Amino acid sequence: MLSVLRNGPYRRLFTAQVIALAGTGLATVALSLLAYELAGARASAVLGTALAIKMIAYVTIAPVIGALADRIPRRVLMTAMDLTRAGTAAALPFVTEIWQIHLLVFLLQAASAAFTPTFQATLPEILPAERDYTRALSMSRLAYDLESLFSPVLATALLSLVSYDWLFAGTALGFLASAALILATALPRPAPVERTGGLRTRAVFGTRLFRATPRLRALLALDLAVAAAGAVVLVDTVSLVRGHLDRPAGAVPLALGAYGAGSMATALLLPRLLQRSTDRAVMLRAAFSLPVALAAGAALTATGPRPWSWPALLAVWAAIGAACSAVLTPGGRVIRRSTADADLPAAFAARFSLSHGCWLLTYPLAGWLAAGAGLPLTVLVLAVVALSAATAAAVIWPARDPYRLEHVHPDLPPGHPHLADARPATGGWRHGHHYVIDRHHHRWPGKRPGRSYRGALRSPR
Question: Transmembrane segments in this chain: where (predicted)?
Answer without folding.
Answer: 12-34, 46-69, 167-187, 218-238, 250-270, 282-302, 308-328, 348-371, 377-397
